[in-house]
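quick q for whoever's on today - can somebody do inverse folding on this one?? i tried earlier but teh output was garbage lol. tokens:
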């Protein structure tokens, strides 16, 4: 089983970026913890970040036939990207949407997710734990 984690724009700045909202943990810290969890669970993970919408779209396309589950924090593209939504719908790979913050409790423009309807579910508001819950959800999706 292979889980693909995708991270959208500005998540490379995690730890320094608005820590009151996103916390002080870096993306590298989260990746390390996920790799430990994956090793224990006997699954492989790929963990990527891009500030470019097209690169994220390409990675979703490439997941078809290669990844069992995608866990995606699309960051700001969550709220804008029809291209990412179409890619997720086309890939046919079960996808879990995650967010560090509770997007529904923030500015109105963050309440709408362009990708939610093509994802299996959404985890939002648990800080870095959203990633670990996303990992658990991915395991659940693929267990018989
Ligand atoms: C985010 C929420 C988005 O609204 C925002 O644009 C982000 C991060 C989150 O993880 O809480 O960059 O996806």
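ok took a stab at it. sequence:
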């Amino acid at each position: 089983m292979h889980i693909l984690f995708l991270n959208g724009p500005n998540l490379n700045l995690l730890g320094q970026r608005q820590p009151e909202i996103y916390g002080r943990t870096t993306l590298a810290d989260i990746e390390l913890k996920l790799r430990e969890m994956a090793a224990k669970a006997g699954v492989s993970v790929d963990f990527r970040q891009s500030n470019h919408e097209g690169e994220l779209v390409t990675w979703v396309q490439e997941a078809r036939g290669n990844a069992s589950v995608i866990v995606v924090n699309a960051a700001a593209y969550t709220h804008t990207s029809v291209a990412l939504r179409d890619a997720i719908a086309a890939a046919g790979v079960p996808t879990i949407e995650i967010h560090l913050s509770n997007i529904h409790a923030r500015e109105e423009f963050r309440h709408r997710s362009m990708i939610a309807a093509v994802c299996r579910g959404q985890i939002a508001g648990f800080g870095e734990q959203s990633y670990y819950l996303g990992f658990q959800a991915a395991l659940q999706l693929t267990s018989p």
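fwiw The longest helix spans residues 27-41. also The pocket of DQA is lined by residues 10, 73, 75-76, 78, 99-101, 103, 110 (CB under 6 Å). so keep that in mind when u check it
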